[in-house]
Amino acid sequence: MSRHFSVFNYIRNFAFKTGVDPRVLIWPLKGSFFVLPAWVFVNDSFIEHCQVTGNSMSPTLSPQFHETGRCDQVAVWKYGATRNISRGEIVALWAPHNPEKVTIKRVIATEADTVYPKAGPFEKQMVPKGHIWVEGDNWRSSKDSNEYGPVSKALVIGKAVGVLWPLNRAGWLSTEWRHPRTRVVRGNPRLLKDEYD
Predict the structure, then answer these.
(1) Which residues are catalytic?
(2) Facing residues of 74 across strands?
(3) What is the percent of the chain with per-residue pLDDT over 90, rounded to a whole number?
(4) At what angle do helices 7-18 and 22-45 cross, to 10 degrees?
(5) Strands 125-126, 114-116: parallel, antiparallel or unpaired by DSSP?
(6) How far is 118 from 180, CA to CA, in rounded Å?
(7) How high does pLDDT run on average in the chain?
(8) Can you list the alpha helix ranges (DSSP code H) found in the chain?
């Protein structure tokens, strides 16, 4: 005769053997049935924690990574992330060159802008509708739009809004950044023709 395994039965037996009140052990487990789905919903829809590995965003993020391997932990706001993306914002996105990896880059240009990069295979590039041009703050060590061109907004997961860890660097992230490598001529997105017209 086989016995049906139950977490609650296991905890009750453990409590009986150790003399601990089983309610003390079962209560947190029952609470997790409500807390865990709520946490997953918030993590999938609103805000997520992300670790910045590498030094492509140095000195803004993980400035000591090349020396100590120390990474910044950032908060990524996901709700409405692809709406109103503006120049200077830092975004988390699926890497076009490695679709299983999430990368963090700064938005340099938005749709209808013309980009004149100083590195990579592109001489002049107009950012198409529904796309952005992203680059790392550390241009010497960054795989970005200079290599793979404009990125679809559909790859954007969220906007990095603040550093959570280490505590001495904790705070909001600034969108003010003058990129020394790439010249951008602002365009008018209203003049872009819809691909489906």
Answers:
(1) 56, 105
(2) 50, 163
(3) 4
(4) 140
(5) antiparallel
(6) 10
(7) 77
(8) 7-18, 22-45, 65-68, 145-148
